[in-house]
Amino acid sequence: MPLVFLNFSDTQFGTPPNYSQFDADGSLIAYGNATYFRDELQSLIASRIESPSSDFELNAAEGSVTAKISARYPTDYVTMNLQLNHDWLPGTTIFPHLHWWQTTANTPHWVLGYRWQRQGAAKVTDWTPDAWNTNVFTYTAGTLSQITRFPGITPAAGTFGQVSDILQLRLYRDYLNASTLFEGNDPVNASQDIVNLDVHLEIDRQGSRQQYIR
Questions:
Q1: Which are the contacts of 62, defined by CB distance < 8 A and separation ≥ 6?
Q2: Ordered DSSP codes for the chain
Q3: pTM (predicted TM-score)
Q4: pLDDT tens per residue, range 127-140
Q5: Are 21 and 4 in contact, with CB atoms under 8 Å apart?
Q6: Domains and CATH numbers, the chain
Q7: Closest by alpha carbon to 33, among 57, 15, 58?
């Protein structure tokens, strides 16, 4: 038998009950006012790949983006906007990482810039740059499907972060170390292809009870 949780304050007055139910296969179903809101996330500008100096190019045949050695920080980049889901635990760290095809033993000078746009607050204009810090896999030979991590991102002090905030991301390849985040120039003298840029976030519920706030 499925396990049912009822809000008896609703049933005693003859109104439809609000409850959640685990079905026999473990699926959680919500009824009445026990439902949640969540976002269907798609960045408007992510539907087109274009960089200011064309040093990031769409590789249609491979379904990837090619980062050339001519890429220059901070003038060339690709960008993505991430809206924070309704199931995100506000204030917790966001963990960005890059999926790409590694063709040498070295890693390019990947830099991730970000700025946190809190809804109902003034626009943040400055970008904070972070250098990559960890590769998940060890390169041996050929073309490796690599995952590269960046430092975690937390909401700015005093803002805490909330549902529907926008995290803006820029991915750079800093070939000449203009950011001074590395030691020397980019060690990979070749174009490298990016497959995806995404983030992991911590959640504590299925969604929010209201459309724009928790």
A1: 193
A2: --EEEE-HHHHTTTSPP-EEEE-TTS-EEEEGGG--B------GGGGS---TTS-EEEETTTTEEEE-TT--TTT--EEEEEEPPTTB-TTPPBEEEEEEEE-SSS---EEEEEEEE-TTSPPP-PPEEEE--EESS---SS-EEEEEE---B-PPTTT---TT-EEEEEEEE-TT-TT--SSSS-S--S-EEEEEEEEE--BSSSSBSSSS--
A3: 0.80
A4: 999 999 999 999 99
A5: yes
A6: 3-34 (no CATH), 44-200 (2.60.120)
A7: 15
